Amino acid sequence: MKKLLCALGCVLACSMAAPVVAQEKPKAPELTSAELLAKIQSDKKGIVERTMNLTPDEAKKFWPLYDAFQRELDGPRREATLATLDYVAAENSLTDANAKRIADQILAAQLKEAQLRQKHFKQLLKVLPARRAARYMQIENKIQAVVRYEAARAIPLVH
Q: Which residues does 136 contact at the CB level (< 8 Å), separation at least 6?
């Protein structure tokens, strides 16, 4: 489990020290953020499944909510992506008015996403213990941190 949390970029899991023994196990190499993004894109649901450690009863209640949440998140994430693509397409010809419009669109999409996370957390609390619901929100946050980092790294700053 530590290996998976490390793969998600969990600094806390990486900082947990194991007891010193005569022969230490070699440490798994840390993945770059690009490698983490590739893992996330290829198997996000699998990462969540392995990290959540749900009981069969919890899984039966969790996965329909997870799938609905992911579908709902598609809207605001698509809006933010389209706005970002507008910015990238404008390159050096970006006007102040266009920059404001794009920034407003991205901020509105981020607000919608935050509202969906709040809504989803409340739904999770109805079917999972609070610690499990909070764990999922942490996992989702860590995954999105990697995705956002890679996107931010690729997009140049406004001139």
A: 48, 52, 62, 66, 124, 128
d(CA 148, CA 142): 10
How far, in Å, CA of 28 to CA of 93, rounded?
Answer: 46
CA distance 147 to 52: 20
Amino acid identity, position 131: R
**Mean pLDDT along residues 117-142:** 96
Residue 42: predicted pLDDT: 78
pTM > 0.70: yes
Q: CA 1 from chain center: how many Å?
A: 18
Please give the share of the chain, as a percent, with pLDDT higher than 90: 53
